Amino acid sequence: MSASVLYDSPGPKARVRNRIFAVAGTLVIVALLAVSVLRLADKGHLDPAMWDIFNYAGIRQNIADALVATLKAFGLAAVGSLVLGVLLAVARLSDHAPVRVVATGFIELFRSIPLLITIYAVWVAFLTDYSMWALAIGLSIYNGCVQAEVLRAGVNAVPKGQREAAYALGMSKTQVMTTVLMPQAVRAMLPTIISQLVVTLKDTSLGFVILYPELLYSARLIASNTQVNGQYPYVSTIVVFGAIYIALCLALSSLATWIEKRGRRAKTGIAVSEAGVTGVAQGNEAVLIPPTRTEAPGGFDGVAPGGDGSHRGDGADGTGITKN
After folding, report:
1. Strand 278-282 relative to strand 300-303, pairing
2. What is the pLDDT of residues 42-52, one digit of tens each?
3. Which ranges in the chain belong to alpha helices (H)?
4. Are 279 and 271 in contact (CB under 8 A)?
5. 70: exposed, middle or buried (C-beta count within 10 Å: 0-12, 13-18, 19+)?
6. Distance (Å, rounded) from C-alpha 295 to C-alpha 297?
7. CB within 8 A of 160, min separation 6: which ones?
8. What predicted TM-score, i.e. pTM, was given to this entire model?
9. What is the pLDDT of residues 101-115, one digit of tens each?
């Protein structure tokens, strides 16, 4: 029986007990799902007519328009939050106390305010006639503060020796931040950055509060204005629009996984040459030049430049020094 660092491996009795609990839990979940389906069927929510409404051209066009509106707001919010996150992270890491204090106060303020209040305040105070920009700016402010903390954690996680080595080479602080620290921070924190972008995508549903015609707003209109057999198709609408949100989030997560795997496969560094040959860089490839043996007058037998850089002489007295 093997042991783990975190817990002891279960014995025979524990394994039997865990299996019993797993089977019992599965049966309870299946029973709850069955009861839910039966109740929905009794109330007519599973009738084919409730789902047939999505075959209408008008409803399909509404869904397509809402999807485009959601992606527009998400695209603006994603770019805005990343740009703002980089600026706030750099400002919070600044050596200048006023800049650092202002950035810290901004981050802590808007991380503490609920996102819905931020979006509504931006809409009412500044952009009443531009709900899309109000939603994008509100999302950018909140998620930018979160991304700033993520990037700051990534920068602080980079070994200090790399920063000191960069300063020793004569780099300025801007060069160190842009060429050494920030690229490594982004690569290390990429999963967390993408996870926050998924949250940003889901938070676009808050646009219905400011009357922005995104997916949730369109779903509410369809469910409340379409009547089938004397009932409103809330269940079918929730299932369809929920599936759209799930598909969007899975697509974004798949993109993040692909980017991460591609970054791991990237070949970086300097090619190592074989013993006795010299590597000369040409473009992105290393060309190996074999050593060329030459024989000089007076018994000198050495290696010309392009070999290992040494000169071995065999003099008359065997000392390795050529005598004239």
Report:
1. unpaired
2. 887 788 888 88
3. 12-42, 48-52, 57-92, 97-112, 115-125, 131-157, 160-168, 173-176, 182-188, 190-203, 215-225, 234-265
4. yes
5. buried
6. 7
7. none
8. 0.71
9. 999 999 999 999 999
Q: Rounded to an integer, what distance in angstroms lies between the CA atom of residue 209 and that of residue 221?
A: 13
Read off φ and ψ for residue 272, nearest 5 degrees. -95, 125
On whether the CB atoms of residues 80 and 114 are closer than 8 A, the answer is: no
Q: Percentage of residues in the chain with pLDDT exceeding 90? A: 34
Q: What is the C-alpha radius of gyration for the chain, rounded to an integer number of angstroms?
A: 32
Q: How far is residue 314's CA from residue 322's CA, in Å, rounded to a whole number?
A: 7
φ and ψ at 288, to 5 degrees? -95, 125
Residues 6+ apart with CB under 8 A from 139: 73, 77, 80, 81, 115, 119, 200, 203, 204
Q: What is the DSSP string of 154-180?
A: HHHHS-HHHHHHHHHTT--HHHHIIII
Alpha carbon distance 222, 62 (integer Å): 9
Cross-strand bridge partners of residue 279: 288
Give the DSSP letter string of 262-288.
HHHH---S-PPPPTT-EEEEETTEEEE
- Residues 16 and 164: their CA atoms lie apart, in Å, by 56
What is the tens place of the pLDDT at every residue in 196-248?
999 999 999 999 889 899 999 999 888 888 878 778 888 889 999 999 999 99
Q: What mean pLDDT do residues 172-199 have? A: 85
